[in-house]
Amino acid sequence: MGSQPRIEGPYRRVTVKEDRVEVEAGLVQLKTPNDGYLTAASGRLSIGGHGVNAEAQMLHGRTGKGPVQGELQLLRGNVYAVRDREMTGAGGTGSVFGGAVTSRAMSPKTDDDVVVKAGVALSAGVAVRVHHSDEDRDGKKEYGAGMDVGPVTFDLKSESPMATMAAMIRGIFAPGAALGGYARSVADKAAKR
Fold first, then answer.
1. What angle do CA 19, 20, 22 make, to 5 degrees?
2. Sign of CA dihedral 173, 179, 185, 188
3. Range of the domain at 93
4. pLDDT tens sequence for the chain (193 residues)
5. Contact 153, 146 (CB under 8 A)
6. For residues 156 and 146, is the Cβ–Cβ distance under 8 A?
7. How many domains is the chain partitioned into structurally?
């Protein structure tokens, strides 16, 4: 794609992936060289043997690749019932505006990767999901769960779920030590990429 941001619009794409079809369209989209984006008046529909996912938004954006990502949304709705290689879940949410932060302590050279996403929004709805993906493609799956309930969204997945749960329990009793350990893990894995 080059080193400059790219703007396109109006745009539409149809993609066939395995046994599903994805249709995406919007008024305008800005893409950055590191996979960040900002879309306006856009929507996406995915239908196939593993479920359906439909979303529409007035404005949606995400920062590019890195150990920490930010996300924002304005007038967004999402409905899905999915069971595929990455996730099993169902739900529906609608929001006026919101944002989320995702932290990735991941490297294909390690087997204790952790991804945490937390966000808030002026929203309504409920969605639940179970993660079972291999995001860093090292052959070891990350397992976890997530949910959207009213104004709160939260996801946690890990290649070592038991070790992650033990660290979370330690964090309840010694939050400073657990947070410091997680921050060191994110920095170490970013250096190993």
1. 155
2. negative
3. 6-192
4. 457 889 988 999 999 977 789 999 999 999 988 889 999 999 999 998 789 999 999 999 999 888 899 999 999 999 999 988 888 999 999 999 999 999 888 777 777 788 889 999 999 999 999 999 888 888 888 899 999 999 999 999 998 888 887 877 776 666 565 556 666 666 666 666 6
5. yes
6. yes
7. 1
For residue 72, tell me if it sits in a domain: yes
**Does residue 1 sit within a domain?**
no
- Model pTM? 0.80
Is 140 inside any structural domain? yes
What would the DSSP string read from start to end of 69-121? EEEEEEEEEEEEEEESSSEEEEEEEEEEEEEEEEEEE--TT-S--EEEEEEEE
Is 48 a member of any domain? yes
